[in-house]
Each structure stands twice: as C-alpha cells, then as structure tokens.
Amino acid sequence: MNEFERKRINNLIWMICIVFITLLTYISYLQVFKSSKFAQHPFNRRKYMIEEKITRGTFYDRNGTVLAKSEFVDEKQERVYPFKNLYSHVIGYNSKIYGNSLLESSLNEQLLNFKDNQRRLATLSSKYSYPTLKGNDVHLTIDNDLQMFSNRLMKSKKGAVIALNPSTGEVLAMVSKPDFNPDGKYLKENWESLVEGDDAVLVPRALQGLYPPGSVFKVITAAGGVEKGLDSKIFRDQGKIIINGQEIRNAGSKAYGDIDLAKALEVSSNVVLSQIGLEIGAEYIKELCERFMINKALPFELNISTGRLSYKNMDINDIAAVSIGQGRLVVTPFHMAMAASAIANDGIMQKPFIVSKITNSEGESISTTRVENLARVMSKEVADKIEDMMERCVKYGTGKKAFIPNIRVAGKTGTAQNEKSLMKKGGEHAWFIAFAPAENPKIALCVLLENEGQSGGAAAAPIAREIIEYYLNKK
Amino acid sequence: MNSVVKRPLYCLLLIIAASILLFIQLYKNIGINDIFYILFASMTILIVAGFILLRFFEGADIYIYLVACMLSCIGTVMVYRLDAQQGIRQAIWFALGIVVMFAVKFASKNYKYWDNSWYIFLVLIIMLLAVTQFFGVTIGGATNWIVIGNIRFQPSEAVKFLFVMFLACYHHKRERLVKNETINILVPFSACYVSVLFLVLQREWGVSMLLILLFFAVEYIYNQKRVFLLINSVFLIIFSYAGYNLMNHIKIRVDMWINPWADISGKGYQITQSLFAIYSGGLLGSGLGLGRPDIIPAAQTDFIFSAICEELGIFAGASLLLLYLLFFLRGIKLAFTLKHIFSRCCIVGITSLFAIQSFIIIAGVTKFMPLTGITLPFVSYGGSSMLVSFAAIGFIQSIRDIDDLIEL
After folding, report:
1. Which of A232, A361, A472, B406 is most open to solvent, judged by the fewest CB atoms within 10 Å of its CB?
2. Residue A127 has pLDDT above 50, yes or no
C-alpha cells in the first residue's frame, strides 16, 4: 500500500468516526434536553393511549353535583357532560382527535393521576386486561344552580357573566355565550363550523373576550380621583365638553350642572370623569390600571387574556377617552369582576380560583386551594367611598334596574362604543358590575352583553339584579 | 485458551445472553408463537455453529460475523414483536443468511478471475438495473422489486455490492489497461452516474445517494487526481440543487427535515411519529411489547431504529449505532493487511457501504438529515437485504484467500 492510499484510508476512517460520533452526540443531546417535549407533545398519541387505560376523574361543583364524568361504553371510555353546553367554557372538552381544552387540559395530569398511574402501568403486563386505573376528581368552586340560573338569563345573547366571592376569590359562576356541546360526537360533526364560523363559538368570552369597558372603568378613574383628593372638588357639567378640539358628551348630552365626583359616578357623567382623568394624569392612570391587573398577567387556573392599555404616550384626548373606558383600552369581563370584587373586599383583590380541592379515587383530599391575597388595589377608605358611590348609582342613578328593595346593592353601568358600533354595524357593549350586600358582600359580579345595542343600565343591570336576588335568597 | 480465543467467545456468549433476555421479555409481554421457539433455537444453534466453523479458518474475521449476528438477533426479535409472521420470516432469512455466508465464502475462493471481471460486473449491474426499470414492480412507492412467481427481491441491494466490485477491478487494472486520462475519469464516473440515473428513475433516492457517497469515498482513496474530486463535487451540487427544485418528492423530504412541525399530520407525519417514538422510551426503553411502536409508519423497515429506541431505550439505539461503527472499523482494518489493490478496494468499498447506509438511515429517522427510503442492514425486515448483506460478509471472510490468489 503506498503512502497516499494509507493516508487517505486513515482520513476516511476519521471522517466516518467523526460523523458517527456527531450523530450520537446529537441523539444524546435531544434525549437529555428535549425528550420530555417529545414525550408530552400533543400529537404523540402514546400519552392518549395510556389515558385510555385510566378512568378520567370527575368534575364536581361545590355541592357535589357531577359536572363531567367518564363512562365506559363497549369497553371504551367516553366523556359525559350531564349539563351539555353549560360548562363548555369552564371545563372544556376532552377529545382524542381535538385534544383537551380549558380545565380538561390544565388539569389533565391530575384527572389521570398521571405520575402514579404511569408507574403502575409500567409494571403491569399488556397481556392481561386489568381493572382500569383511576384518576383524581376535581371539586370546583362553581355553584351549579347559580351557573344554570345565570345561563338561563343570558338567553341567546352573546357575552359573559362572572360571579365571585369577593372575600375569598372563589369563582361561583362563569358563563360565556355563545357556547357549544363539548360532547365528542358533537365536536366531530361540527368542528369545522365551530372553528371557522363567524361567531367564534370556541372562545370563552369571560376569560378571553377583550372589550372596551366603557363607563364601568369609571370606578377605577374615580378611585384615582379619590386618592388625589378630587372627591371634594366641584366640576361643571354642561352635557358636553370640548377637550383639545374633540367633543366628549354625556349620554343624551344631558347636563348635570355643578356636581362632585360622587354624583358624576352616580349619573355616569362622561364630562366630569374625563376632566378627572385629565387631572390625575396619564402616568397615574397607567399605574391604576396595573393595580387592577391590566397590562399584567392575572393568575388563574385558566388562561385569562391580558387586559391592555396600549399607549406609549397618551396625549390629552387619549387620557380623556381612557378615563371613561374608551380609547385603546380593552379588558376581559373577568377583569371587571375582579375590580368589583376588590372594591367589595375593602380594596384587597383576592387571588381568583375555580378549583377548590382535588380528591383521589378513595375520596381523600390530595390538595386544597388556599385563599390568598393577590394585591392591595386601594385603601379601605377609598374602597368605602367608591362603594358608597356605587350604591348611589343603583339607588338613584343609571343602575336603578339593579335595585333590590331589602338588599343594599352597589353597582356601575357601562355602555361601551366599539368598532362595530362606531361603524353602525352593531350595538354598543352593555356592561354592569356589582356586589351585594354592600355591608358584607357575598357576591361580586360582572355582566357583559356583547354588541347588545342597549345601555348597560337597561340590559345588563336587570340580569345582575336577578342573579343577586337569586343567590342571596338561596343562601 | 489464550486471550485471542477467549475474547470472541465472550462476545458470542454476550450475544446469546442478550438474545435470551430479549426472548424472555417477548414471552412475558407478548407471548410467543410455537414456531418461533423452534426458530429461535435454530438461530442460536446456527450462530454457534457458524462461530465454531469460522474459527477453523485463518483469515476469517470473527468479529464482523459476531456483529452481524448481534444486529440480526435484535432485528429479528424486534420485527417479531411488530409482526409475528414477518418475524418468523426474518428468522428464516437470518438462518439462510448464515448459510449463504459460508456458501459465498467457499465459492469465492474457487473463482480465479475476480480482478479481471470488471466487465462482468458492469454488465450485471446494467442488466439488473435495466430489468428493474422495464419489468420492475412498484411496491410501497418505489419501483424496485422484481417478482418471479412467489419470490420477490430487490436488485438494488445487489447492485450496490456489484458496483463496489466493479470499482475494485477497475482500480486494480487501471494502471495497466488504460493509459488515457480521460477514460480514467470517464469510466467509473459514467458507471456511477448512469446507475444513479436508473435508480432515480426508479425513485430510489436513498440508494442513489448511497452510491454517490460510496463513489466519493472509494475515489477519494484510489484516484490520485484532485480534479476528479472537484468534478464530482460540482456534479453532486448540481444534482442536489436540480433534485430539490425539480423533484417535488425531494423538496418535500427536505422541507420536512427542516421543519416537520409545520405539517405534523400530513407530510411531516412519518418523521414526527419517529421522533415521538425515539424519545418516548427513555434511556432503557418502555419495555419490549410495552410501548406503541405499532403507530410508527413503516416500523418494520425504514423506522425499525425508532421502534428499537422506543422499547429498548436510547442506550439500545446508541449501541446499534456503535455496532455499525465497530463493523466498519474491523473491516477497514483488514484492508491494511492485504496485498493487492483489488482486495483492498473491495474491503474499503463494502465496509464503507455498510457504514454510510446505516448512517444515512439512522440520521434520517432522527432528523439529523432528510429521510430516505433505505433500510438498516441486518436489522430491518427484508430478505434481499439480509441475504445480500451476509453474502457480502461471506466475501469479506474469504478476501484474504482471494488476495493470495491474485497474481501481479
């Protein structure tokens, strides 16, 4: 063998070795760093096949009513939702083809008791058919009666209702409309129309619908006003005002004369609240928003879209618009329910939760959610003042339709202009936030009717009234 | 016994132990067909018999035989796990393979004209390719099968090795036969690329790439003209570029290599399922029979490696990769002990073939490079591949004797 050949063969040997070792390193790298991503990938059917052997856990409401469970039909596991559409936007769906959504998805590991059962499966032989392993059960804070009642009131409207316990943060009811039947068969037949339809049926509006809040945002502006000592100031309201060339009008251009902040909130005066906004200034408004969890992530067992105040710099007209809940400001109905809840709870926003506890197949409790403070949104004094103003709104002002004779209800109406309403292609959003009874609030809620075309006071407030009445009398 | 004798014996015992362990796992998790007991026993007996027989012959490389047996055992068990019928057939191919190995070993010693037969090889290659082109049957997307009665085989398997032998003959004789520089370059070149053309027409991308890379490797060592490598590289680049842009097939494969996640349920299905399988098993695998390799497309052939990684673990996959490297290193070491260019070139070519082929397929299923439709030697299900590969090993076992027979 000559030198050339010898050298070349040696080179070839090196090249092959390097190439093989590189491949080996690549595989090892993926194994060490990326294997869980592959193993848990939603398109990796292995996970689902293990799931088939485990009886998925049951969802209960706070009183033990079954909201979702698994049954065996012809030896195959099927997910049954006794209340059909009612929890499509809370519990979601569980489908081999389309995956899981909402709580079925976020609690998947628990519902299957995956860690323990995976180990048990590995030690059993696939040769034998063994009694199925069981997952854990989930107990929600939801009150099924309240959920059904609220849902009935929404009829065929689009929008959302959220009811919370302000002192604990428990979600008592969460309705998003339009809804759908989460049953597997129904999903299969209707998936395309669900996904591609105009109504965005699959979007849980309570959590992920982003809307301009309109006048319900004024409680936040007012809080800022009180903090800056503007609640003793008198403002002139002549029905409309020109700010930097642009006109801001009250509903119906109604003039209220010389009024203070409390009266302005009661009658929902755009003229006064925009002036208050200008006085407290852009930076303060931004800071207020963040306190109320806008432009911040709101922690919850489900994904809540981030409320947004989208401005780098706000000029005078922007400030005026935002103060009355318009402009480039969007929030979810959940955010406004949390705002009401914070005001009701002496200025402390409790961390919202919908899962009260998780129990195993024997009924033993595995984990319980603790009540936690999320943030101090305002001082007790300010909260008391705002609460007072909101009571007056219901007693004397725009929220009269929420008035209940022997219950002190605090509330605020909102009628929000939006893209569709500005183009005359749809109606304004009708909002109402409230809590009751004011002296010791047991329920805080937000009602949002999308593109309703009526005012919050006319359309949303009555729904809130019925819900409050039902809930407080039920207790 | 001295250490030279002991070491291969240990390897043999290791193989038998590993096979028995796998067999027990199979039994525990899936249960075993009666026939397979018999086959497994025969397999073991044959392996041992082969081992003993080979030890009697000087010049035989026992380790190459052992590596091939280890690979075949793992492959047979895995194929059986995936499909009992195919597993039984694979075991029979394995047994036949060992017989074929000895047959080739004895027969090739008696053929005195190896180094003079380049035209024979060329004719055979062209014949096989042409027959496949015109009479070939399309199975599984590739028109590369010849069916005679009940028997199906893939000529492309044989073409690979015949090509190596052709190149070996050519380089051996080159000095004396051909003085013209142009022909020097043209003959092997056209042999290679004409074959590639046939293969491309038959949609055998993997074998085409294999052939070109093999050509590169052999010419790199045996052709002293740098210009040659340059021309080859240019050709390769043109081919690849043209291939990517003109053949939709290839474009899809490359796109799915770069980002299969863009179309997980469609074009990227095979590679994503392969990746899921490989990394779902963990280091030691989910257990033979306990994973779900049955949802990997083409699990018994192209993706057998993924199935092995899933159930036997990444360690098993890595071991497989290293076994092929070991095969290559043992083989190429032989080359340094041979006297004539023909034998050396044969060895270099054959071992490079195995190395490059196993690399291409393992790299393909792990998304290290685009997928090609070739199989893993000894492990994938396939009679043609098994028999031809063992025949190649038989040839390797007799290369020393052939080397001695060649006169200058």
Report:
1. A232
2. no
Look over chain A and give the mean of its residue pLDDT values, rounded to a whole number: 91
Give the whole-angstrom CA distance, residue A161 versus residue A280.
Answer: 31
pLDDT digits (tens, 9 = 90+) for B89-99: 999 999 999 99
Strand A133-134 relative to strand A54-55: parallel, antiparallel, unpaired? parallel
Convert the pLDDT of each residue in A249-296 to its tens digit.
Answer: 998 889 999 999 999 999 999 999 999 999 999 999 999 999 999 999
Q: Where are the alpha helices (DSSP H) in A368-460?
A: 380-396, 419-422
- The rounded distance, in Å, linking the Cα atoms of B358 and B346 is 18
Cis bond before residue B155 (omega within 30° of 0):
no
Residues on chain A touching B289 (C-beta within 8 angstroms): 126
- Rounded to a whole number of angstroms, the distance from the CA of A54 to the nearest CA of chain B is 16
**Axis-axis angle for helices A270-280, A316-323 (nearest 10):** 120
All residues of chain A having their beta carbon less than 8 Å from the beta carbon of residue B275 are 38
Determine contact, residues B137/B202, Cβ cutoff 8 Å. Answer: no
Query: What 8-state DSSP symbol labels residue A251?
Result: G
pLDDT greater than 80 at residue B21: yes
Residue type present at position A275: Q
pLDDT tens per residue across span A147-188: 999 999 999 999 999 999 999 999 999 999 999 999 988 888
pTM summary value:
0.62
CB contact under 8 A, B325 and A39: no
A41: chain B residues, CB-CB within 8 Å: 276
Q: Do B318 and A24 touch (CB under 8 A)?
A: yes
pLDDT in tens, B248-279: 778 888 888 999 988 887 778 889 989 999 99
Residues 6+ apart with CB under 8 A from A116: none
For residue B198, what are its two tokens? Answer: 């046939």
A238 at interface of B, judged by CB pairs closer than 8 A? no
For the ranges B1-5, B69-73, B126-130, the lowest mean pLDDT is seen at B1-5
Among B292, B295, B332, select the one facing A9 at the smallest CB separation. B332
Residue A400's pLDDT band (cuts 50, 70, 90): very high
Residue A14 has pLDDT above 70, yes or no: yes
Report how far residue A256's alpha carbon sits from residue A328's, in angstroms, rounded to the nearest whole number: 28
Distance from CA of B388 to the nearest CA of A (A): 23
Give CA–CA dist B376/B72, Å, rounded.
Answer: 10
Q: For residues A5 and A342, what is the distance between their CA atoms, to the nearest angstrom?
A: 83
Spell out where A304-368 has E strands: 308-309, 329-330, 348-350, 355-359, 365-368
Q: B48 to chain A, minimum CA–CA distance in Å?
A: 30
Q: Which of B291, B318, B359 minimises the CB distance to A27?
A: B318
Query: What is the nearest CA distance from B329 to chain A, expressed in angstroms?
Result: 7
Distance from the Cα of residue A6 to its chain's centroid: 72
Burial of B99 (0-12, 13-18, 19+ CB in 10 A): middle
**A23 and B CB contact within 8 Å:** yes
With tokens 């003993």, the residue in question is: B52
8 Å CB contact of B280 and A27: no
The whole-angstrom separation of Cα B349 and Cα B213 is 11
CB contact (8 A) between residue A43 and residue B317: no
Rounded Cα–Cα distance for residues A125 and A102 (Å): 33
Residue scoring higher pLDDT (A145 or B5)? A145
Q: Are B352 and B214 in contact (CB under 8 A)?
A: yes
Average pLDDT over residues B38-60: 83
- Kindly state whether A30 is in contact with chain B, defined as any CB-CB distance less than 8 angstroms: yes
- Residue A208 CB contacts under 8 Å (≥ 6 apart), including other chains: A303, A304, A305, A332
Set of chain B residues whose Cβ sits within 8 Å of the Cβ of A12: 217, 220-221, 332, 348, 352
Which among B217, B280, B348 is the nearest to A46, CB-wise?
B280
